[in-house]
Every structure is written in structure tokens, then in C-alpha cells.
Write a structure and sequence with these properties.
Layout: E1 8-14, H1 17-22, H2 24-39, E2 44-51, H3 63-71, E3 77-80, H4 83-86, H5 90-103, E4 106-109, E5 114-115, H6 120-153, E6 166-169, E7 172-175, H7 180-191, H8 196-207, H9 213-220
Parallel strand pairs: 1-2, 1-3, 3-4
Antiparallel strand pairs: 4-5, 6-7
Helix pairs in contact: 5-6, 7-8, 8-9
């Protein structure tokens, strides 16, 4: 491909399929990319939309990203609105930029100021900001984990699948009183030396409660508190 055939590709990543069809994020990113293309005297060959793919995945492992990398050639331009739309890993970002540079493809990050691999200064700024962004995301993730651990220790529900036998009240996990008849039956069956697997099956048939035998074991041996009511 010659320099005269150079094409401009905008790359947009949105978190969900819904955002890809009607999200403000998509429209805003597209508008900025088209405006930027016009500012450097190029028309837009294509706006590539990557929906429902985590930014932690390298560009080469994203369906649309991988196709884009195979499509571009010398003289082509790829632009993203923000660095985190392109990559959330400093090492992956640098490796991808190096590969694009060898192909003769220019990468533009609008939040950094434009082309990031046309000269040494651009590469240096890109490298520093990619590393800082990854560090900050790591710190945020660590703070979120610490906060969730603290909340769980206080009995608060922090999301995910609610454990069987519990309900959420005022933000906390509490025993569901509707389980009391089933719990009484489970204790009675176990007192008669019924195996835990059989208890799990029987409580499902008679009370419509789905438990595996290991959960029955934990409940009946007080390794999982359930009867706080």
C-alpha cells in the first residue's frame, strides 16, 4: 500500500452491546474521531466499534481489534479518543505501538494530544502515561477489594450471587426466616444419621430448595451460620 492510499481508522471500545447501539459514549467518541480526522486533512475509512470487550484484553485478542491490525498497512492511521479505549496494560500498549510502528502505521490518542509514535518525544509521553494509568487502575482495584473485604466482614452484601438461605436487609446479609422449617427438617434428618447427599436431595424435593451436599454439611456443622433469627 502506498502513502497516497493511506486510510484513517477510528477505534471505539464500549463496555456493553447496548452502548454500541444507542449509547452516548459511542456517539461522543465517533464525533471526536471524525472531527480529529478532518483536522489532519483525512477522511474516515471506517469507525471500528468493539462492544462488550474488557479493556484488559490486548487489542490483538479482541475480535474487531485483531481484524483492524490485520487490515492496516504502511501510511495508515489509527485513532482512539482515550488511552484506556486502546489498552489498560502498559506493556501491552507499548508492544502494540511498537508493532504498529514497524508496519508504518501511526497511532493517535486524542487525550494525549495526537500521534504517539511519530517521534521520540511522543513515544516517551505515551510510555509514561500508559504506566501511570496502569498504576492508578491497580490502586483503584486494590481499594475496591479492601473496601469489599471490610464490608463483608461487617456482614454487608457486596454483590454477586446471594448465598442460599440469606436475604438482604438494610444492606446486610441476614438469615431468611422462611428457611426455618427446612432447617429444622435437615437437623432432624441428620439426627437420624441420614447422609448429607440424601439430605440435599430430600430438601430439594420437599421444600424446593437447591443445595449441594457440601453446603448441607457446612450448615449442619455450624461452619456456615444460617439460623440467626
Amino acid at each position: 500500500m502506498g502513502e497516497g492510499d493511506a486510510k484513517f481508522y477510528g477505534y471505539v471500545r464500549v463496555s456493553t452491546d447496548k452502548q454500541a447501539t444507542d449509547g452516548v459514549s459511542l456517539k461522543e467518541q465517533e464525533a471526536r474521531l471524525r472531527g480529529y480526522a478532518a483536522s489532519i486533512g483525512m477522511g474516515v475509512a471506517e469507525i471500528v466499534v468493539e462492544a462488550g470487550v474488557s479493556g484488559s484484553k490486548s487489542l490483538a485478542k479482541r475480535p474487531k481489534g485483531a481484524a483492524l491490525l490485520k487490515k492496516v498497512g504502511r501510511g495508515d492511521q489509527i485513532a482512539v479518543v482515550k488511552l484506556d479505549r486502546f489498552s489498560r496494560s502498559a506493556s501491552d500498549a507499548l508492544n502494540t505501538v511498537e508493532a504498529l510502528t514497524k508496519q508504518g502505521v501511526t497511532l493517535h490518542c486524542l487525550d494525549i494530544g495526537g500521534a504517539v509514535n511519530q517521534d521520540g518525544v511522543g513515544k516517551l509521553v505515551f510510555s509514561i502515561l500508559a504506566a501511570v494509568a496502569e498504576m492508578e487502575r491497580s490502586r483503584i482495584a486494590e481499594r475496591v477489594r479492601d473496601a469489599k473485604t471490610f464490608m463483608r466482614q461487617g456482614g454487608y452484601f457486596t454483590g454477586g450471587k446471594l448465598a442460599a438461605g440469606y436475604k438482604v436487609k438494610n444492606g446486610k446479609m441476614v438469615a431468611d426466616n422462611e428457611w426455618n422449617p427446612a432447617l429444622a427438617a435437615m437437623r432432624s434428618w441428620r439426627a437420624d444419621e441420614m447422609p448429607y447427599r440424601e439430605i440435599a436431595e430430600k430438601v430439594g424435593k420437599e421444600y424446593g430448595i437447591t443445595l449441594d451436599y457440601s453446603t448441607c454439611f457446612r450448615i449442619l456443622n455450624k461452619k456456615r451460620l444460617l439460623d440467626a433469627a
